[in-house]
Amino acid sequence: MLDVVAGIVWRDGRYLAVERPEGRRQAGFWEFPGGKVEPGESVEAALVREFEEELGIRPTEFSFWREKIYEYTDLTVRLFFFHIRGFEGDIQPLEGQRMTWVVPGKHGDIPFLPADLEIVELLKTEHRDSL
Q1: Residue 34 pLDDT more than 60?
Q2: CA-to-CA distance for 99 and 11, rounded, in angstroms?
């Protein structure tokens, strides 16, 4: 099982989605930014490290939201989702990925990774309930 962190970055009521770049597993699908947890690393430390490496920002206000296990045909991942409401730095696509800000419930035809589809739906409900 592969442990992965994913951050839901919020700005002005929208969350950040990134496209997996060419050359990566499942390139062309969109996801919440993050990545693998290294051996011996806490999920919180992995979240901060991955965001520094991938987007050039350092999360400063974040909270664990939920854990999800998803089985692909050749790989099982355990995802740790965090809400990120504050960070230092300016978001930059350091890995050449495309990025977009999504209004919950209005992701249109953005093809999210299968492991993230349930989360996209939950964000729609949570956003509506928080209004």
Answers
A1: yes
A2: 13
